[in-house]
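Review form for a predicted model. The reviewer records the input and the model, then writes brief findings.
Reviewer: anonymous (R2)
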Amino acid sequence: MNIVGQLAPLAFGLAVIGSGIGVGLIVGKTIESVARQPELQGRLQTLMWIGIALTEALCFIAIGVAFIPFPAP
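Model under review:
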């Protein structure tokens, strides 16, 4: 039985859900921070984009790991 092939769609789904939650939290906290201190908007926005990029990179890594072939026992 090829269990890796059966778990790959689950890995894709969890990676996308986790990434979506992470990006939502990052953007929400950035908006909240800009509302509190508008003078820091440029710096906060830069940090937000870096955080989004790292979060999406983790999603792509998780999807890539799902394609790694494992030897059959």
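Findings: Helices lie at 3-36, 41-66.
Further findings: The longest helix spans residues 3-36.
Recommendation: see findings above.
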